[in-house]
C-alpha cells in the first residue's frame, strides 16, 4: 500500500500535538499516513521540506514572519509536486481564494478541527499523489517509446541519405522533424563500433543489449552536443554512426577536437557501461550531399583500428597507409607456407606466419577475405576425404582487431593438425556438449554450462572456440536447428511446435535462425530434401 509522508507546520504547539495524536492513532490502525516531521514557522518548514521531501504538507495559514500563503508560494517553486492542506482559524473566503489560486489541495477550518475531516482530506490527497505518480510513469514510458521510435526513424532516414535516395531539400524538412537544431555545416562523421560484439551478445540478453545500446546513444549524443548539434543512430549491428557539427577554425583544430571528443565518448562508455569501443572519424564536411562521403571515410578510419588495441580513436591525421608491396610479400609468404604444411607441422611452423601478420599492413577487409580462403585450402591439404570439410569452417569476417585474427588462426591451426593426427576432444568439452544435448529444450546459458562442468565461463567460452571453432551461442543455435531437422525427418511439425521442441520460445526467431543456418525455411527444407 502506497504510504504518504506528511509534514506538519503550525506555530501553536497544542495544534501540532493534536495532529500528532491523529497520526499516532492512524498508525495503530495501519492507515497509509506517516508523519515524518514538524515545523513551527514557515522558514523552518522550508528547511524541513527540502530535507525530508514529504508527499504532503499540512500548514497553518497565519504564522509570524512567513505566513502560510508565502510558504505555499515558495514551496511551489522548490517542490512543485508536494500536496498542501491549509489549516486556518478563519473561514474568510479571501484566504481560501488565495490558497486555491496557488494550487492548495484542501482548505480546512481549525475551529472546530475534526479528525474525520483531516483524515478525509489526507485520503483525497493520497489519491492525488498516486494518480500523479502513475501519470508520470505513463509519460516517462511514452517518452521512452517516442524516443525509441525516433531512433528507428533516424536510422531509416540516415540509410536513405547514405544511399542517395533523398534530396537536400527533403532532408532539410525531415531532419527538422527528427533532429531539430542539426545543421550540416562543418560536420564530421563518427563511426562507433563494439570491439567485441560476439562477447557482448553472449553476455547479455536481447532486452539488456537494447538497453545498453540506448545508453550508448545517450552518451554519444551528450558528449557531442557539448560542442554542437548531432544526429546519431545504430546504422548497422554493432556500429553507431553520428554526424556532429564541430566548432573549429582549421582542419588541424577540427582533427584535434574530434580526437578529444572521441576519447571522451570511449572513456564514458567504458566507465558507465563497461563496454569497449573503437571510433573512426572523418574529415570536415559541409552539406547533406557530402554525408555519404563522410560516412565512408569514418568507416575507413575505423578499419585502421584493426592494427591497434581495443579502445582506439582514429582521426584523419592518425590514418594508416597500405602498400601494394606489403600485400604481395604477405601473400607470397603465406602461399609458400601452405605448400610446405603437412600434418607433421608443429606450432613452430605457425610462428613465422604470425610474425608476417604483425609486420605487414594490409587493408583489413582484404586481409580477412584472404585468410578465410587460405584456411579453407589448409583444411583441404591437411584433412582426408573422409572428413567433412564444410563443417565448422573458420570465419574471420567479424574480427575487428589483429589479435582476434591471430588467435582465431592459431586455434584453427591447432584444431586442423589435431584432427589430421586423429586426436579427440578434451573431457571437459565432451561434458559440456553432452549437457547441451540433454538440455536443448531448456534455456541454456554459458554460465549454467560452466557451473555444470565446474569451470570459469570465460574459460568455457574459449574452450568452445578452441575445440570446435565456434562460439558457445552459435554452437547451441546450430544444435537446436539440427535437432529440429531430426524431428522433421520423422513427421510434419508446425513452426511453433518445432520451436518449442528445441527450446526456442519465439516462433519468428526460430524461423530466422533456421534460415540463417540452412538457407531456407523449415517447409522448403522438407520439400527439397524428403518430398522431391
Automatic annotation (TrEMBL):
<dbReference type="InterPro" id="IPR011006">
    <property type="entry name" value="CheY-like_superfamily"/>
</dbReference>
<dbReference type="InterPro" id="IPR009057">
    <property type="entry name" value="Homeodomain-like_sf"/>
</dbReference>
<dbReference type="InterPro" id="IPR018060">
    <property type="entry name" value="HTH_AraC"/>
</dbReference>
<dbReference type="GO" id="GO:0043565">
    <property type="term" value="F:sequence-specific DNA binding"/>
</dbReference>
<keyword id="KW-0804">Transcription</keyword>
<dbReference type="GO" id="GO:0003700">
    <property type="term" value="F:DNA-binding transcription factor activity"/>
</dbReference>
<feature type="modified residue" description="4-aspartylphosphate">
    <location>
        <position position="60"/>
    </location>
</feature>
<dbReference type="InterPro" id="IPR051552">
    <property type="entry name" value="HptR"/>
</dbReference>
<protein>
    <recommendedName>
        <fullName>DNA-binding response regulator</fullName>
    </recommendedName>
</protein>
<dbReference type="InterPro" id="IPR041522">
    <property type="entry name" value="CdaR_GGDEF"/>
</dbReference>
<dbReference type="Pfam" id="PF00072">
    <property type="entry name" value="Response_reg"/>
</dbReference>
<feature type="domain" description="HTH araC/xylS-type">
    <location>
        <begin position="430"/>
        <end position="528"/>
    </location>
</feature>
<dbReference type="InterPro" id="IPR001789">
    <property type="entry name" value="Sig_transdc_resp-reg_receiver"/>
</dbReference>
<dbReference type="Pfam" id="PF12833">
    <property type="entry name" value="HTH_18"/>
</dbReference>
<keyword id="KW-0597">Phosphoprotein</keyword>
<keyword id="KW-0963">Cytoplasm</keyword>
<feature type="domain" description="Response regulatory">
    <location>
        <begin position="5"/>
        <end position="125"/>
    </location>
</feature>
<dbReference type="GO" id="GO:0000160">
    <property type="term" value="P:phosphorelay signal transduction system"/>
</dbReference>
<dbReference type="GO" id="GO:0005737">
    <property type="term" value="C:cytoplasm"/>
</dbReference>
<dbReference type="Pfam" id="PF17853">
    <property type="entry name" value="GGDEF_2"/>
</dbReference>
<keyword id="KW-0238">DNA-binding</keyword>
<keyword id="KW-0805">Transcription regulation</keyword>
<keyword id="KW-0902">Two-component regulatory system</keyword>
Amino acid at each position: 500500500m502506497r504510504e504518504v509522508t506528511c509534514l506538519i507546520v503550525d506555530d501553536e504547539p497544542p495544534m501540532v500535538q493534536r495532529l500528532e495524536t491523529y497520526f499516532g492513532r492512524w498508525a495503530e490502525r495501519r492507515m497509509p499516513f506517516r508523519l515524518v516531521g514538524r515545523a513551527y514557522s514557515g522558514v523552518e518548514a522550508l528547511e524541513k521540506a527540502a530535507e525530508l521531501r514529504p508527499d504532503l504538507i499540512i500548514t497553518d495559514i497565519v504564522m509570524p514572519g512567513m505566513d502560510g500563503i508565502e510558504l505555499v508560494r515558495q514551496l511551489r517553486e522548490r517542490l512543485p509536486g508536494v500536496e498542501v492542506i491549509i489549516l486556518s482559524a478563519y473561514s474568510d473566503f479571501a484566504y481560501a481564494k488565495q490558497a486555491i489560486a496557488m494550487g492548495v489541495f484542501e482548505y480546512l477550518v481549525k475551529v472546530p478541527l475534526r479528525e474525520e475531516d483531516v483524515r478525509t482530506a489526507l485520503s483525497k490527497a493520497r489519491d492525488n499523489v498516486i494518480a500523479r505518480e502513475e501519470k508520470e510513469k505513463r509519460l516517462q514510458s511514452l517518452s521512452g517509446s517516442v524516443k525509441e521510435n525516433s531512433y528507428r526513424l533516424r536510422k531509416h532516414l540516415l540509410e536513405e541519405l547514405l544511399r542517395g535516395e533523398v534530396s537536400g531539400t527533403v532532408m532539410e524538412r525531415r531532419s527538422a522533424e527528427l533532429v531539430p537544431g542539426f545543421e550540416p555545416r562543418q560536420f564530421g562523421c563518427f563511426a562507433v563500433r563494439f570491439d567485441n560484439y560476439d562477447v557482448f551478445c553472449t553476455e547479455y540478453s536481447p532486452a539488456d543489449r537494447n538497453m545498453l545500446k540506448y545508453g550508448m546513444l545517450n552518451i554519444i549524443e551528450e558528449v557531442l552536443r557539448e560542442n554542437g548539434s548531432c544526429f546519431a543512430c545504430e546504422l548497422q549491428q554493432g556500429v553507431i554512426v553520428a554526424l556532429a557539427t564541430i566548432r573549429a577554425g582549421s582542419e588541424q583544430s577540427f582533427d584535434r577536437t574530434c580526437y578529444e571528443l572521441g576519447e571522451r565518448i570511449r572513456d564514458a562508455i567504458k566507465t558507465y557501461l563497461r563496454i569497449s569501443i573503437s571510433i573512426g572519424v572523418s574529415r570536415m564536411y559541409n552539406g547533406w550531399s557530402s554525408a555519404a562521403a563522410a560516412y565512408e571515410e569514418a568507416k575507413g578510419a575505423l578499419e585502421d583500428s584493426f592494427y591497434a588495441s581495443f579502445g582506439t580513436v582514429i582521426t584523419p591525421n592518425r590514418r594508416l597507409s597500405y602498400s601494394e608491396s606489403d600485400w604481395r610479400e604477405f601473400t607470397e609468404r603465406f602461399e609458400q607456407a601452405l605448400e610446405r604444411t603437412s600434418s607433421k607441422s608443429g606450432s613452430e611452423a605457425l610462428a613465422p606466419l604470425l610474425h608476417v601478420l604483425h609486420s605487414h599492413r594490409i587493408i583489413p577487409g582484404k586481409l580477412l577475405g584472404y585468410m578465410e580462403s587460405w584456411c579453407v585450402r589448409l583444411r583441404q591439404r591437411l584433412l582426408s576425404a573422409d572428413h567433412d570439410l564444410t563443417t565448422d569452417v573458420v570465419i574471420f569476417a567479424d574480427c575487428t582487431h589483429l589479435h582476434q585474427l591471430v588467435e582465431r588462426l592459431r586455434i584453427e591451426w591447432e584444431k586442423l593438425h589435431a584432427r589430421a593426427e586423429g586426436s579427440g576432444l578434451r573431457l571437459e568439452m565432451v561434458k559440456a556438449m553432452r549437457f547441451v544435448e540433454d538440455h536443448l529444450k531448456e534455456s541454456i546459458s554459458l554460465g549454467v554450462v560452466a557451473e555444470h562442468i565446474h569451470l570459469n565461463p570465460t574459460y568455457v567460452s574459449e574452450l568452445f572456440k578452441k575445440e570446435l571453432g565456434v562460439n558457445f551461442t552459435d554452437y547451441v543455435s546450430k544444435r537446436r536447428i539440427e535437432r529440429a531437422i531430426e524431428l522433421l525427418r520423422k513427421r510434419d511439425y508446425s513452426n511453433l511446435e518445432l520451436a518449442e521442441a528445441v527450446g526456442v520460445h519465439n516462433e519468428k526467431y526460430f524461423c530466422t535462425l533456421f534460415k540463417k543456418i540452412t538457407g531456407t525455411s523449415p517447409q522448403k527444407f522438407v520439400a527439397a530434401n524428403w518430398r522431391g
